[in-house]
Amino acid sequence: MGTAPGGGCGSHVKTPRLKGKAAWLGINIFLFTYYFLFFDQDERYFYTRAILGSALAWARASAKCLNFNSMLILLPVCRNLLSFLRGSCSCCRRTLRKQLDHNLTFHKLVAYALALFTAVHTIAHLFNLERYNYSQQANDDSLHAVLSKMHLQNSNKWLNPIHSNQTTVEYVAFTTIPGLTGVIITLALILMVTSSTEFIRRNYFEVFWYTHHLFIIYFIGLVIHGVAGLVRGQTEESMKEVHPQRCAEFLVHKPKECRQECCKEPEFGSIPAESWKWVLAPIILYIFERILRIWRAQQKVVVTKVVMHPANVLELQMQKKGFRMEVGQYIFVNCPAVSLLEWHPFTLTSAPEEDFFSIHIRAAGDWTERIIDTFQQQKLETPRIEVDGPFGTASEDVFLYEVAMLVGAGIGVTPFASILKSIWYRFQQNDQTLKTKKIYFYWLCRDTGAFAWFNDLLASLEQKMAESGKADFLTYRLFLTGWDTSIANNAALNFDTVTDTVTGLRQKTIFGRPRWDTEFSALATAHPRSVVGVFLCGPEALAKVLQRSCHQHSSLDPRKVKFYFNKENF
User: Which SUPFAM superfamilies does the entry mention (predicted)?
Assistant: First the structure.
């Protein structure tokens, strides 16, 4: 079980994730610098800068960057759009699909940018409010003081939104539309970011799930945040008559009989709200996405079989009209008997050739524990299940490689169950279109019980490939990373037996962890001119090790072995 799988990067890139972060940071810095220089030089805001100084450019540039990132934050979570681009679009080649697999990483990068520019925007406006307040209380003949008193001549002709010496920053923050929406937006963003940490998602998924829906409040607040227009600039019509660069001195020292064009006082207007222009299209797209999800979730799902495996793993076999899948894909599952609102992602463990689709659920949190208990305690009526999907992942590309290296950790073996089952069916059907010539499968488990539910499939594959004369097609190695002395002693005493004492398979279980440098060196030697796809469904620490090994063992010569890393993103 895990979040929507994704990820994947070519091994020839030494630090792709780091480069992606640096590139996104560079794009945002470029945009911020461009808009900062623009607002720092724009003559419409000459008089506004006389009051606020450079804090105006800091606030406006960060606002533009906030709009830009808000426009992009929803796109990586439009799963149906990504699946269409990944699998249905003819122009979507492997390189582009790999980039689409980084959707959640990109979503996080955009969120970090939002948090950063929200902080910059908030701090800049706190400085602005202090400058507004200072200018309002000034009694000299300085330009900022004169500009702040213009509301006394005409209630509509004002540049400084603070019209009283008693007005405080707190008053503006909690009584004006920009201030109040800014506070709400900031609080919503803080809650969403803090609840998205690895610890919260792993241990309190419900907290992450519910707080993330504060994005609705965030976007509503963002759209109406600039409606009141507290920050103003000189109107275009006024600039034609009263140019700020030439006429600023006359505003402070105006002669009694003035006949120049500068004698006319400048007029100011609010900066039009622009956020809605940036986010309207993504919001409409996301609304259609949610409507499609709701429609698909309402289609009837029939649970045809319920199996409890060792290690507290629940298998659900289901059927749904019109359901079509590919290997390695995932679905979102809801059980109304457990929770009406919560949807959790699960990798499909069935093969496309089967007349049902299945998932395996391991107890790893409140929701998974409750759904396992619900199905264990069922009496006459099977609990209702709703399904959204399937959606594409990096594992779909496994058959594009001549050589594939599959690495699963614990329940992370689920996408490879689908792949290996599909291979079994293709061997039965004598499929000649299968491009893949060799598969290496590594499964790492902490306890022996985790092996049990997958043993039957591996045993069937062993037998079928031996009968087909392709016993060398699949090489698999099982690693037990947690054991006691009794298990080790029993394995040692029965080492010469035909089958393994832990799994009952011909391949003996290895105690400990793989030596990845040795494994990659052996693969590079066995396949010196092949492109090897490395697929992982497991923890981030293991991903870093495999990604580094992919880079180290890939040849710089394009005619020799290349390792490409692909990861299921949990």
Answer: Ferredoxin reductase-like, C-terminal NADP-linked domain, Riboflavin synthase domain-like
